[in-house]
């Protein structure tokens, strides 16, 4: 028998715990696991209550620390319930991230099974590793430039132009090594001569150059610098996309199905195995699109009409890959 869950009650109790929808989904466990898409549907219910099955209702109640009956009661959180005191040693991040970064968190979770909270914990480590790798890459190139310039200089006796060129190259390499020693990742302290020679921080910087090189070197097909360039931060972090190719392979670039995956309305691991066969592309896309809230579906279609972009026909390209294995155990059952 379905259990009515009131959306405002779930929202208010979740807010008291200072949890995101993703954190609430992570807090549900085992056979009472509740997917993020289900939580979105519950909280997105506009009128009345959401009719959930017993497993979903019990899972949410256990995670939120209330009774199932409390979740069925319209209104705010149970009286007297106060926000929990911060755990010793824990600090709340006070920052805002753009929508693209939010989607990137979700795609990393879908592709690699790393929850957003864990990604945040990992971020300083990965930032430091990438920074050091970029400096090492630049150091190697500067030292090779020095060696080549010295070789030219040894051969430039009597050739004034060659001697000047080698001397300029040596000066450039020395300046670059000084920037590396100061850990100047984005070339914030470029000399006037660099600008005179055509350096434009609006088009590139050493760190973004390294990222593009690294992505190509390791063949990271799930990561790409977004077409059209541009910066995500004032420091010169390039715009990027995660999982775009994986989504394209699953959906053949169907806009509504792709949108459902990229926006986290449904996960790759949620796709039924029988729908992953190449000949089930149309059924797979229809299933994915069915998870879109009606308001977002209408907005997406209106946007496409405004831009004059018709829905692309499915491409008989390579077969869709198998959906990534879920990191949950036991296997999550379909939500109501």
Q: Helix content range of the residues, please?
A: 40-55%
Radius of gyration: 26 Å
Mean pLDDT across all amino acids: 83
Domain tally = 3
Organism: Neotabrizicola shimadae
Protein name: Helix-turn-helix transcriptional regulator
GO molecular function, one term: DNA binding
How does this model look, in words?
With 336 residues, the chain is mainly alpha-helical. It has 3 domains: 77 residues, lambda repressor-like DNA-binding domains (434 Repressor (Amino-terminal Domain)), CATH 1.10.260.40; 124 residues, no CATH class; 65 residues, no CATH class. The protein is 51% helix and 4% strand. The protein has 14 helices and 4 strands. The strands form 2 sheets. The protein has a two-stranded antiparallel sheet. It has a two-stranded antiparallel ribbon with strand order 3-4. α7 runs antiparallel to α8. The longest helix has 40 residues. It is elongated. InterPro entries: Cro/C1-type_HTH (IPR001387), Lambda_DNA-bd_dom_sf (IPR010982). GO terms for molecular function: DNA binding. It comes from Neotabrizicola shimadae. This is Helix-turn-helix transcriptional regulator.
